[in-house]
Amino acid sequence: MTQVGYSKKVMDHFMNPRNVGVIENPDGYGKVGNPVCGDVMEIFIKVHNNIITDIKFRTFGCGSAIATSSMVTELAKGKTLDEALRLTRKDVADELDGLPPQKMHCSNLAADALHAAIKNYQQKQKLK
Ligand code: FES
């Protein structure tokens, strides 16, 4: 299946998304909604020695949202929390070789959900 305007990488991550699912008892959890379309993305992380050792996502959204979720999990896995916090919405879209302009808003969810999960982890650490 090819879709005008979508890169091969977007189609690959949409058709074969990486790291789909839920982590039971995650160290960090982020959930964000897209105000433009109402789609929702959740990210679960496991952290060891300040490194994201496991990450999964669950997205109720369009193909671009699924592709960007999949890509952000690949980018974040194995990174330190600081490195992962520096991943931007643009980094995710660039790694997918771009998204059609009308779909750029979909890529916002992925980086935002990742950052929300990391901040959730950091807040829990402060409470310990
Ligand atoms: S249309 Fe909702 S995230 Fe893409």
Total count of strands: 3
Helical amount: 40-55%
What is the N-to-C order of secondary-structure elements (H for helix, E for strand)?
Answer: HEEEHHHH
Major pleated sheet = 3 strands, antiparallel
- Principal-axes shape call: globular
Strand content: 15-25%
Integer average pLDDT? 93
Question: What would you call the structural class?
Answer: alpha+beta
N-to-C span: 49 Å
The DSSP helix count reads 5
Strand order of the largest sheet: 1-2-3
Unreliable sequence segments:
none
In this entry the ligands are: FE2/S2 (inorganic) cluster
Q: How much is the radius of gyration in Å?
A: 14 Å
Topology:
Layout: H1 8-15, E1 28-33, E2 40-48, E3 51-60, H2 63-76, H3 81-85, H4 89-95, H5 104-127
Antiparallel strand pairs: 1-2, 2-3
The structure holds FE2/S2 (inorganic) cluster (FES).
Verbal overview:
The protein has 128 residues and is of the alpha+beta class. Helix content is 45%, strand content 20%. It is built from 5 helices and 3 strands. The chain has helices at 8-15, 63-76, 81-85, 89-95, 104-127, and strands spanning 28-33, 40-48, 51-60. Strands 1-2-3 form a 3-stranded antiparallel sheet. FE2/S2 (inorganic) cluster binds next to helix 2 and helix 5.
